[in-house]
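re: ur msg from earlier - yeah i can do the S-adenosylmethionine complex, just paste it... oh wait u already did. ok heres what im feeding in:
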Amino acid sequence: MSVKIHATNAPTPLETKVHPVERKVFLAGPKQDEENLKKILDFIHEYKGLDLSSYRQNFLYRRLRLRIFSTKAKGYFEYINLLKNSPEEYNNFLDALSINVTEFFRDPDVFEAVEKVVLPQLIARKEARGNLSLRVWSSACASGEEPYSLAILIRQSLEKKIAFLVKIWASDIDRHALEKAKKAEYPAQELKNIDSKIIKKYFISCGDNCYRPSDEIRQMVKFQVHNIFQRFPFRCLDLIFCRNLLIYLDRRRSKELFHTFSQLLNPGGYLVLGKVETLWDRGLFVPLNLRTKIYQKVD
Ligand SMILES: C[S@@+](CC[C@H](N)C(=O)[O-])C[C@H]1O[C@@H](n2cnc3c(N)ncnc32)[C@H](O)[C@@H]1O
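and the outut:
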């Protein structure tokens, strides 16, 4: 799948031409609703490089109809024109898919379960085997809040165990989101759900109402552009976070990912999904905590 999730600021030369897709959309009329919505998605794929073909159709159509309604576009042709000429509307469309939405310690109960159950089990197992390393992947990390939250939890859990070697790989298909993640400057408002003790210990001020994770935390996370459907170069992982990406995928593509995750994880390794996401393939993992969608690889 070639997904490119970012808005260009100005229409490219190609975008200023009238595309046959647009003409068809215009002529087809509102009765062929689904067909027209599909044509808008084709247009987005061709001109913006965003291939949403693996994403759930009903979800996409619902969001698209909502955008058309909100913009008061009179039909699909007009909406395509809007997408062509207004980078702002393209951004609104992406926002409507909540493609990049994230936050520090998103769903605090999930991070609490990782801190209280997953990390202690994992660390104890590693110590018993004399393998003092933790290998973690945040596989759709958006602008970095998720892997930095994980780094903080791991640093806390390993406070006195300095011999442990920790690697956190964080990847996303969206280059722009990753640039933000590497820059790591977050408005104070984005830290509103974080305990003040944690902020004091693991964040530094970087200007007016702006904070960044401390050097110690930032050095723990290695960012890279990566499409989750392509081969991931690191194996023998202990913990994979894949949160709030599967909601956009159909069942077949999600199942493919569960197989990949199972192959990349060590025996007994953990997989954490988004709270509204479903593990379709029950043979590969057992639930550790169903409410928080934490699963453990079957050995
Ligand atoms: C809603 S965000 C989730 C961020 C974070 N995991 C969380 O739960 O807060 C979804 C992320 O998935 C990324 N994404 C979408 N398709 C992807 C793909 N094929 N490979 C890697 N990342 C992808 C998007 O760029 C976006 O940053």
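cool cool. The first strand starts at residue 133 and ends at 138. ping me if u need the other ligands too
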